Amino acid sequence: MYTTINEDGVLNNYATEPQMHYAEYPAIWQQRKYLLQGVFATLIVTTLVLVAFSVS
C-alpha cells in the first residue's frame, strides 16, 4: 500500500493498482456460445412476461 503524509500530518493511503492487460477478441466458438446464451435468456424473459400477462 502506498502512503503519503501531507504538511498537516494527515495520512493518505492508496491501494496498489493491478497490472493492466487488453482483452482479446472472442473466438468463433465463444461468439456462438454467447449467441446461444442470448437466445436462452430471451426465451426465459419472454416466457416470464407471457406468464405474468396470462396470470393477471
Q: What would your notes on this structure say?
A:
- By secondary structure, the protein is α+β, with helices and mostly antiparallel strands.
- It has a domain at 26-56.
- Helices cover 50% and strands 14% of the residues.
- The chain contains one helix and two strands.
- It has one helix at 28-55, and strands at 2-5, 11-14.
- The termini are far apart.
- The model has no long low-confidence stretch (mean pLDDT 91).
Task: Give the tags.
two-stranded antiparallel ribbon; 14% strand; alpha+beta; elongated; 2 strands; 56 residues
TL;DR?
This protein is an alpha+beta fold and 56 residues long. Helix content is 50%, strand content 14%.
Q: Radius of gyration, rounded?
A: 25 Å
Looking across the biggest beta sheet, what order are the strands in? Answer: 1-2
What is the typical, i.e. mean, pLDDT? 91
Overall geometry: elongated
How far do the termini sit from each other? 56 Å
The major pleated sheet works out as: 2 strands, antiparallel
Topology:
Elements: E1 2-5, E2 11-14, H1 28-55
Antiparallel strand pairs: 1-2
